[in-house]
Specification:
The complex is a heterodimer of chains A (about 250) and B (about 650). With about 250 residues, chain A is α+β, with helices and mostly antiparallel strands. Chain A has helices at about 20-35, 55-65, 70-85, 90-100, 110-115, 120-130, 135-145, 225-240; strands at about 105, 130, 155-160, 165-175, 180-185, 190-195, 200-205, 215, 220. In chain A, about 40% of the residues lie in helices and about 15% in strands. Chain A has a 5-stranded antiparallel beta sheet. A two-stranded parallel sheet of chain A has the order 1-2. In chain A, helix 3 crosses helix 6 and helix 4 (about 90-100) packs antiparallel against helix 7 (about 135-145). The longest helix of chain A is centred in the C-terminal third of the chain and has 16 residues, at about 225-240. In chain B, helix 22 links the parallel strand 17 (about 615) and strand 18 (about 635). In chain B, helix 1 (about 5-55) packs antiparallel against helix 4 (about 140-190) and helix 11 packs across helix 12 (about 455-465). The relative contact order of chain B is 0.07. The mean pLDDT of chain B is about 85. The chains are: A alpha+beta (about 250), B alpha/beta (about 650). The interface of A and B includes residues 195 and 215 of A.
Amino acid sequence: MHSCAARPVSEPAIRTGLRGRRGAALVVALVLAALSGQAIPQGLVEPGYTTAATERLILAYEKRFGTPVRGRVEAWKRFAQERRGEALRELALVAAVNAFLNRIRFVDDLAHWGEDDYWATPAEAVGSGGADCEDYTIAKYFLLRELGVPVARLRMVYVRAVRLNQAHMVLAYYARPDADPLVLDNLEQEVRPASQRPDLVPVYSFNDEALWVETHGRVGAPQQIRNWAGLRERLERELLLAGLARGAR
Amino acid sequence: MTLERRLVAGISALVLAVLIGVQYIHLRNAQRALQNQLESVSQDAATAIGLSLGVLMRDGDRVVAQTTLNAAFDRGHYERIELRGLGGELLASRALETQPPGRYPSWLAGLFPLYGPTTESLVSSGWRQLGKLRVTVYPRFAYEQLWATTRDTALYLLAIYAVALLLLRLFMRGVLRPLYAIERAAASIARRDYVEIEERPATRELSNVVLAMNAMSRKVGEAIAGEAARAESLQRAAHSDDVSGLLNRRGLVATFDTAYAQDREAFSGVFALLDIGDLAGIDEALGRSRCDELLRAAGHALGVAAGAVPGGLAARWSGAVFALALPGTDRGAALEALARLKAELELLIGEYGQPGRAAVAAGGVECSAAHAGAEALAEVALEALARAGQDAGGGVMLRPLPEGEDGPAASALVRDALRERRLRLFGQTVFSLPGATPMQVEVMARIAGAHGTLLAAAEIMPVVSREGLSRQMDELVVESVLRELSGARAPHIVSINLSARSLAQGDFLRWLAAALAQAPESAARLVFELSEHGVAHDEAAAASLAAVLQQSGAALAIDHFGMRRDSLALAQRLRPAYLKLSGMLTPALRTDPGTRFFVDSLLRAARQLDIPVIAQNVEDAAALADLAALGFAGYQGYAASAPAAWPLYSKL
């Protein structure tokens, strides 16, 4: 099974994100928006996106994980909201996303989810305030996609963490297909090129696009990476939980 | 189609449909599982080859890539494997040039299609991306597996089907067996044979049916037995002499005439009368009861003498006169028998202490194929008896029957007519009662004599009988009728008289069956009549005839019915289509209460047996209402319809 490298130092939980200047500014913006009667512009709703984390989902997850859920999820939604539509350079965005999501506390799957190898949805990871290496990678992958980074530039990579001598997973960002990728790792706050990460040995990589089966013209969900298939199912369920029917989008 | 066949066919079709459904579902599931397996194979291959390429072609070595692809491709599971670089350029590929035929029929692919899925995986060496790998699986092996499954399950299901059919058949046999018994009983009842079903079915519905049918059969059977017993006792009372225990004159006439005068049979033998002479004196001397005793003893002696000859009859003709009919007996034997009987009776009178009054005379008439009634013969015998009384020589006198018209000339005429097949068909219409509408036609044969005159049956039959031409006659009539009927649109039943003598000839039945088989449509309209006497004479032959007729669609009827004590028993055993009551009984119906009572009893029993009865020799239209009230289904007679020349259909 998949074991996961943990960050040596535990970071403060995500709700500390509210204390930043940017956080205060956002609260002001939100209040202003609420007073002016203007809704926050709704982005594209895809499973795993912040836009899928509706009030109903927050309430459901509060019930499931406890009270701090709302703050964490709202901060996450704001993070995406602030950056949507901004002409950010992708490199900066990748770094921001990595830093933002790395604030989630590292927890072991078995302790957190009661399962040996549980691939949590971004909303689960953010809402529960705990994640392991795959959960970070998934959350970063979906957030970057939501913010406009093409899938072709993103790879979830099974790597060997040489120093810890453990199986691990990171997200790689390829600015060009033949580029030296940037590595988004929950072990490192800083995003560095892969060439500067001799501590990681890549083994196998995939993304959502390269994981498909085409049968007689019909493209189906891949069954091969069972955990990925499980994740997609939970994402669909989450949409229902959020009150967003698939067809409503 | 029998109920069992229908049920078995229906249920087995249902089972077959279910099994085909099971087979279909099974194959659908197998198809789905195999499709998933194909996708797994495809993904596994893409992942595995992608991983090894990442390790092997670190420096982008195309030859290594091609070799790796070759190694994987040659396992035979793939239709195409290709590796493309980052820019989409083809780095290495393998594809099936031609698709080798699989070991499965092509319709399988049409019915349960399997698709070779295509999967992609990324190939990278370390962090460096090398390209994309596409793997398309070739579904031949999956089809072969599906075909094996198809055959296996089909085999299993067929075995299950066969066992199910076998069990079903056994089950149906068991359940329906009582029904067959009921069906047989119903068929018997339809033939007026009131049988009871012995087996009680286990199922409630059938059991109730059996109970009801048995109760009905028993009731009807009892009623018929009662009527038959009554008719028999009436018959006995009317036809027997209380004192001697022999037939009375009426009984003898009825029996004799039925056998020889009415029917086509003729009498050959001796008809004699014996006169005890001074019976009045004996009566006076002995007293009534002793005299009756003597008569009883005399009757016994006559009965023994008659019993010694097949078909022999003995009767008390009048007070002191006894009658004896000895068919098939020649002059010498008859003289001997009569002399012995005369001596016996005289001895008997002597034993009763009246030797002086023992003067018995016997006079008889010697017949050769005579078609005359008992009364007519008795007249001749009386003359002989008178001569015998005068004749001191022995008191026994035999006279030959005076020659009538049926002399040698008539014989030659009939013989020639039969040989030349010169037969004229006549028919007498039988009318229904009540309503008097034509219901059938009885065929009568005539032979054209000299100067255009026609010989009637009464003239022809003695000759036919004497010359042994019965069979030729019957065959000629049957052939002629069949010829007349072919193509004709006769709406009515046509009845033909058959002679018992013809039946006695073994191959006549075979001939008749063949003749009828050639004209099945005409056969269905024919009824063959046998005289009651003829039926009683050889009941087995009559039963064989009935069977032959039933097979060919024709039917059997009994003519001159009601002259025997066991008439009803005969009818019950033979199940004729109808009965024609002897014409001898018809005139007495209105005058003699005894006859009327007897006939009423016969008719009631026949009604229980569901056999219609037709009155013959009805000459008085005024009697029709009475006949209908008695229960006759029809009547025939010269008054209503004289025999008319064929064809008659225009009149019907």
